[in-house]
Amino acid sequence: MLIDTHAHINDERLLPRAAEIHESMPEKGIESLIVVGYERPSSESAVELSLKYPRFYAAVGIHPHDSKTASIEDYDRFKELSELPKTVAIGEIGLDYYYDLSDRDVQKRVFHEQIELAHSLKKPMIFHIRDAYGDALQILKEHRGDLEYGGVMHCYGGSTEMMREFVKLGLHIAFGGAVTFKNFGKAEVVKAVPADRLLLETDCPYMTPVPFRGKDNIPEYIAFVRDKIQEWRTDISVEEVTSENARTLFKL
Ligand code: NI
Fold first, then answer.
1. For ion ligand 1, residues whose CB falls within 5 Å
2. Per-block mean pLDDT, blocks of 10 residues, the chain (252 long)
3. Where are the alpha helices (DSSP H) in 54-159?
4. Which whole-number Å values give the CA distances from 33 to 53, 128, 140, 145, in the listed order?
5. Which candidate in 36, 172, 195, 203 could, as Cys together with 59 as Cys, close a disulfide (CB 3.0–4.6 Å)?
6. How far apart are CA 133 and CA 130, in angstroms?
7. Pairing of strands 125-130, 87-96
8. Confidence (pTM)
9. 231-247: b or e for each residue (b if 16 or more CB lie within 10 Å)?
10. How much distance in Å is there from the Cα of 193 to the middle of ligand 1?
């Protein structure tokens, strides 16, 4: 059975389909998924979904795009939400210099704050890093001591060398629908990830894999991600290994 470690069922496009998605998971071969928040309301929605549906878990956090909205009240709320039994991670948090929707200094400050928050709550983290791997690595190295509960580089798009640096820090590396794109160009990175650090995700409703590009992504399309990675990773059963990794990291 597969585990989707990054699914935005809390997105307005998927929320009306939550019950149907949950219901169909066993027949689609999906054991569980993590609904990931990106600011306070979406984090509350993720937790609500996780409490309503047995196969859903939740992550709470502020996305780099929304860093400019972060407040102490948000962090206090995340503390409360993280005490609930299905809240398994702090995320998605990080740096996004591609869109730059929040000032970079603000992104960095909020990233620091949430890394410390995750450590104090004894939770792993889900990192969204885009066009900012250098700064992210520097910040994560500064926070080496705060990474003891682990974390995952979601939708990894960096180099093999950079991947090895994140692995050295104890982190996991997740891939989604982008692996099916013709221009993905990073099969070598996927091949180089240590088996015990590899994770699968959809990032639904975004990152829809081939052959459904142009439609909203949904958790069952994770099968296309598994199949593509399996072509490159003949050394392991991608499904078995990634699901075991997800259970271990997120204590599912
Ligand atoms: Ni996401």
1. 203
2. 98 98 98 98 98 98 96 98 98 96 96 98 98 98 97 97 98 98 96 98 98 97 98 98 98 98
3. 72-82, 104-120, 133-142
4. 10, 17, 26, 28
5. 36
6. 7
7. parallel
8. 0.97
9. eebeeeebbebbbebbe
10. 21
